[in-house]
Amino acid sequence: MTGQRKLEVQGIVQRHPIPEILVEINQIRLDGSLRITNRDQKVIIYVEKGNIAFAVSNAREHRLFTILLAQGRVENKHLAGIDDFTNDFKLSHALVSKGLLSEEEIGEFFRFQIRAIVSTVIGWKTGNWVFSPLARLKDGLRYDVDLRSALFESSHAMTDYEILARFKSLEESFALNTNVRSSTIPFSPQEAFVLSRLDEHPLKIEEIKTISGLAGNEVMPILYRLWLGGFIFRDHWNKAFTKEAVDRFRNTKVYLKQSAKSVEGEERIKQEEARKAAEEEERKRREQEEKQRIAEEKREKERREFQADYKEVEISVEDYLTLVEEAPTYYELFGIEPDAKPATIKRAYFSFARRFHPDVFHKKVEPELHRRIQKAFTEIAQAYETLRHEDSRELYNMKLERVIDALKKKHDGDLGSLTRDEVARQDRSRMAMDSFERGKRLLEDGYYEDAGPHLGRAVQLEDSNAEYRAFYGLALSKEKRNRHKAEAELKAAVNLAPSEPKYRLMLVELYVEIGLSVRARNELKRLLEKDPENRRAKELLEELGEEN
Q1: Dist. CA 252–CA 429, nearest whole Å
Q2: Quick one: which H or E segment has residue 523?
Q3: Which of 52, 414, 486, 547 is 20 to 30 Å from the Cα of 340, by its Cα?
């Protein structure tokens, strides 16, 4: 085995998915390259101290000229005058030399390209990968990409079934990463709730299930997404790099053997040698009029579909942030109609992404403003992912219709001043009611253990609702190990609605069941002070008798 082979670690995507490898590389702070092959698709991701610094791909959609054409920043006539415009580095140099783009703009498009490549490979379900510390970047090729947000965003495209398959056992443990600030991240209510229950002390999955009130198949996908985003630590999982391999990386003096440029050039030379005759014939065919006509028609069609009926509007960064932070719906966020075509949605998203991607403002604005820009981009990315797919868009429209109908009733049909917070509150209220009604039905049918997670979710969404707290407490009281929590929930319900006798009676019945007769008598006396004619309270007090 050669020295180079000894330093390589390789595997298959099915066993070690790319997002997990990137997390592990980031945690170990490795330098080198990750080569991934999926049939005829090839990608190389370069990392420095565990962070993504550059990426290259052989896919046409990831070439710089394709991106520039799609976003309308260059035209075919500009490319016609550039020798070998399919070479990203030659193209970027030529565009800067001709004054068509600035160095700063080229940097922005390279960051956009890297992000697109990484987002694509993260979703691969098959393929092979090889990590080597020998291929390094030359100076001037580093374009930092926020790996943590990219992984967190991509994780929401994974199904719960896919995520559950990534756990070896319930013995895995998780702890809060106190070095990461998460106050500006738009977590889902369930993600925020689970995160709030963790601290720096590791907890196993079973323990997290207990403190969160969620079932295993609900809490494990949440933990996985928070881990990919870097908000929590994970232990006892299926790692790709052994300690011995990591020690070899760190103890071997590595000289710069290859760079992104040399790797791409090497690949191009191999392709040229393998198909010299075919490439020459292709060059001749490209010169033929019919080929040019077909290609031009195709490009024109793509441009029309991409631009659709969306007209880009000039907007300042502050106005953009205000729009994203306050828009009550995804449609108003993008400034499009609810019946907008997919091409319109795509055009709107790429318009925002090109102008307001966080990487565009890297080290150019104050940290607080950059955090707002990062949060806003996460929001528009989530909106785009929701609206671009037919199924998720249909579900969003159904949910939005229910929320709007409820708000119309609340405001007598006037929604002129509708805000995002009001839509969000109404949506949380709707989800809480759905969970409560489902849990209450299960509780009434005697399925206490199944009822608990649904009632707990209702409490999580609306913890100021006395009825939710009371019935959650009632479900918990059916399990001896949960009676302490049951008491806390029932007392919370009593405090929220002190004039409602049934919640205090539920608390009394719990005290009676666990033998706390003194507490039961005290609660009954308080109830009778407010409601002297309460028959059930009198009966229970009589059954308990006088204090000894």
Answers
A1: 58
A2: helix 517-530
A3: 414
